[in-house]
Amino acid sequence: MAAPELLSDEGYRADGRRPAELRKVRARMGVFAQADGSAYIEQGNTKALAVVYGPHEMRGSRSKALPDRALVNCQYSMATFSTGERRRRPHGDRQAGELALHLKQTFEAAILTGLYPRSQIDIYVQILQADGGNYCACVNAATLAVMDAGIPMRDYVCASSAGLAEDTPLADLSSPEEAAGGPRLVLALLPASGQIALLQLSARLHQERLEAALEAAGQACRALHAVLDRVVRERLREVTALLGD
């Protein structure tokens, strides 16, 4: 895809952002009183909801219990009204299964599962409106929900995507930018340590171009970390004030 279709001559993207600029982020924690932890996030027009239950005793077959750590169970779904397509989205479709597995791998790297042997932690995420970066929004919402549940983590997990307009890296891709068909990178990062929880690439890239895209995604993750940290601190002040009353 030619670069002018993604980036104007003045260096602006179709939605008016600069190449490294994130979409506007809004987030709230504690949106469901019935769950152990919950969070809602908007990244641009992409909206995601995450709910966490646990740690609790294993449900179903106890043979699945892990003797040295908690089992992390993740489920991903998209609301039928989340896109313009009105096709049926069964819970067991392949893409949902892949994204649930990616979420599981991401949070197994971040949650201190060794503190809860023979138990289970359930993370449910749903995309309410899809406009690019679905997996990333789910990771960021789930991070807030896990923290809202009081489950210890090594660090925040922040996720962002990046692409390329010829040689110019673009951070936090929108749906039209993803649909343009260029190479796309998805990064889930633990910002304090720099540990990568998940890295996915949609096409082959020369090393120099890969490094540029990875750096753009990494900077976006660190910017998201600052936003999520503010949300957590605000939630902590709310809870402290309620306890004080």
Descriptive notes:
The protein is of the alpha+beta class. The longest helix has 38 residues, at 207-244. The mean pLDDT is 89. The chain is built from 4 helices and 9 strands, in the order ββββαβαββαββα.
Task: Summarize the helices and strands and which ones pair or pack.
Elements: E1 25-29, E2 37-43, E3 46-57, E4 71-78, H1 94-108, E5 119-129, H2 134-148, E6 158-165, E7 168-171, H3 175-179, E8 184-190, E9 195-201, H4 207-244
Parallel strand pairs: 4-5
Antiparallel strand pairs: 1-2, 2-3, 3-5, 6-7, 6-8, 8-9
Helix pairs in contact: 1-2, 2-4
Subunit arrangement of the protein:
single chain
**Regions with pLDDT < 50 over 5+ consecutive residues?**
none
Mean pLDDT: 89
Number of helices: 4
State Rg.
18 Å
Shape: globular
Q: Helicity, in percent? A: 25-40%
Instruction: Count all strands and give the number.
Output: 9
Structural class: alpha+beta
Main β-sheet, spatial strand arrangement: 1-2-3-5-4
Q: What share of the residues does DSSP label as strand, in percent?
A: 25-35%
End-to-end CA span: 58 Å
> Mind summarizing the main beta sheet?
5 strands, mixed
Order of helices and strands: EEEEHEHEEHEEH
Which features would summarize this protein structure in a list?
5-stranded mixed beta sheet, 4 helices, 245 residues, globular, alpha+beta, single chain, 4-stranded antiparallel beta sheet
Question: Briefly, what is this?
Answer:
The chain is of the alpha+beta class and 245 residues long. The chain has helices at 94-108, 134-148, 175-179, 207-244, and strands at 25-29, 37-43, 46-57, 71-78, 119-129, 158-165, 168-171, 184-190, 195-201. The strands form two sheets. A five-stranded mixed β-sheet has the order 1-2-3-5-4.
